[in-house]
Amino acid sequence: MALIPYDDRDGQIWMDGKLVPWRDCKLHFLTHSLHYGGGIFEGVRCYGGKIFKLNEHSQRLLDGCKTMDMKIEYTLEQINQACIDAVRANNITDGYLRPLAWRGAQQIGVSAPLAKVHLAVAAWDWPQYYKGDLLEKGISVMTSKWRRPAPDTAPVHAKASGLYMICTISKHAAEAEGCNDALMLDYRGHVAELTSANLFMVKDGALHTPTPDCFLNGITRQTVIQMAEDMGLKVHVRTILPEDLKTGEEFFATGTAAEITPIGKIDGVEYKVGPITRKIREAYSALVRGGAVEKVA
Q: Which element (helix H / strand E) includes 286?
């Protein structure tokens, strides 16, 4: 399949209060966030024309801007409406949205209190991240040499663009070894997450997931925890060490883009895509499209 560059597409992007032709959404070379990584973004899903967990995503963007000392001039309701307008303008049914707030080119240098904080929202068709055999056999991951930073060294609970540098190079390294993604440890050597998705382990009929004290507590992660509890499954949020992974029976990743993605191999050790992973995936698929959560038999 030919690559379609994201800057060479039809459609419209909501940018600074109005819809702009897709190809005209350009930034100056001296845009502050391009040089210093000071951006806050979201990944949002649309199912059947309805945006899932829109309030939660928009609020997280606002919270991230506050953490980054970015004085954004839009309210929660205005950000929600921008997302809705972007979906409607591009006739999206099942798709993905990318809201982004960033510092502009009014100032360049580490300190930029007068740089304008811009906001844009793009939306495009994107039915699934992983497809086909990967959903039946599970993706393959390998542990990255890069680690999630300590909470007193970076704004780890904000969806800040600069934090994804190590994700990109970690995923590139994993793909070069024939894997689909990388497993990130934290600064203590504890299991944290994948490069852009949270991690769950199934053991003895219960879910186990790392404590999100130095990485993003994903909205999909929170949804799955609540959903699993509603289904009658026990959920343990705890420290997971690398050696603990070998005791797991099933693994899956959660994220807005990844949704519920089974993991079939970690550092060469194979795992089956088991019944609980499949049940969680089915329940999540039903939930995002307005269905009810059923208890596990």
A: helix 275-288
Sign (positive/negative) of CA torsion 192, 182, 203, 254? positive
Mean per-residue pLDDT over the chain, rounded = 95
**For the chain, domain boundaries:** 12-125, 133-288
Measured CA to CA, the distance from residue 183 to residue 170 in angstroms comes to 8
pTM for this predicted structure: 0.94
Tokens 């597409």: give the residue. 9
Q: Given the residues 53, 71, 145, 159, select the one marked as catalytic.
A: 159
The fourth-level CATH superfamily of domain 133-288 is: D-amino Acid Aminotransferase, subunit A, domain 2 (3.20.10.10)
- Rounded Cα–Cα distance for residues 85 and 130 (Å): 27
Got the DSSP string for 150-176? PTTTS-TTS-BGGGGHHHHHHHHHHHH
Distances (CA, A) of 190 to 142, 149, 236, 283: 15, 12, 15, 29
A 10 A CB-CB count for 168 gives: 12
Phi first, then psi, for residue 97 (nearest 5°) are -115, 145
CA distance 180 to 17: 37
CATH class for the region spanning 12-125: alpha beta
Instruction: Report residue 70 as tokens.
Output: 């970015």
Q: How far is CA 295 from CA 226, 234, 262, 276, 285, in A?
A: 12, 12, 20, 12, 15
**Count of all residues that appear for the chain in the document:** 297
Known active-site residue 159: yes
Q: How confident is the model at residue 290 (pLDDT cuts 50, 70, 90)?
A: confident
